[in-house]
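<goal> How does this chain fold?
<sample>
Here is the protein in question

***
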Amino acid sequence: MPTLSVVVPIYNEEEVLPSFAERLRPVLDGLGETYEVVAVDDGSRDATPLVLAGMQRSWPELRVIRLSRNCGHQGALTAGLHRAHGAYVASIDADLQDPPETLAEMLRLAQSEQLDIVYGVRTDRTTDTPFKRWTAGAYYNLMRRVVGRNVPSQAGDFRLLSRATVDVLRQLPENRPVYRLLVPWTGLPSGEVTYVREKRAAGESKYPLSKMIRLAVDSITGFTAAPLRLATWLGLLGMAACALLAVFAFVAYLNGSVVPGWSSLIVITVFLGALQLLCLGLLGEYVARIYVSAQGRPNYFVGYDSAEDAERDESHGAAVPAPPIVPRQAEAERFVPAP
């Protein structure tokens, strides 16, 4: 069992992987501890598999897990956490916005203070767009109100977990895990390490607005039934508004000041229709989660694990080549060093 496992979810990161390895490897080699880097290829369609294969030739601590299809960031992170062997397991993205140098400080803090969780907390996000900073702030404020104050503000998926914490997370029957909420929910001893968020080293962001919205919906529906209660209160509020409007219409009728028209009728109809659709939509989100949980399908599929191949090689005493990968072969060969 290595002391540290570093889980890296990767999707179409051929441009940034060489720079990421150049910064990560010296940090891990300088720890004086045994380690493994678990690179989870989340169904990349570019030359990422070939880049990882080339890196493995000169980096024996690099372990590659290839998912059979794109399962999303949280699915890839789940695969890495479930298959990591380390006494401590850290997770970091490959875009270099979270500095790998902070991993050493995280491990020292966890070992010296006997902590199960060490969060990487961003103190400066000026490299992000104003819209990104505003939406991130709104998300964390909402989560702290809904889930509780134990959710650290500005802490994403850059963290370090003890083996005990990973085992607890593996036991949870979550179909759509949101680890930035699940990890604080465990209530295990935790600490924080602050850092300045950097610009993406290369490539484009793999987390557009649509995925941010999906993450917010999964976070809310996975941790609270407050939206269902909100739908109930909206229904009661709508009924009260309709009752007041009926009284107003009756008084106007008695005073003889009724003005024929359809505008008010249309507004009321549209308002009530939208309210009903909103309530049905909120209810549908929870029904969908029940449906997905009842299916019991895993949220990731492992197609290849270099560690398992290595174990088979040792047991049979022969070298078994990794399965061939040929995505964009002509363009990708420049990433693979000559033997």
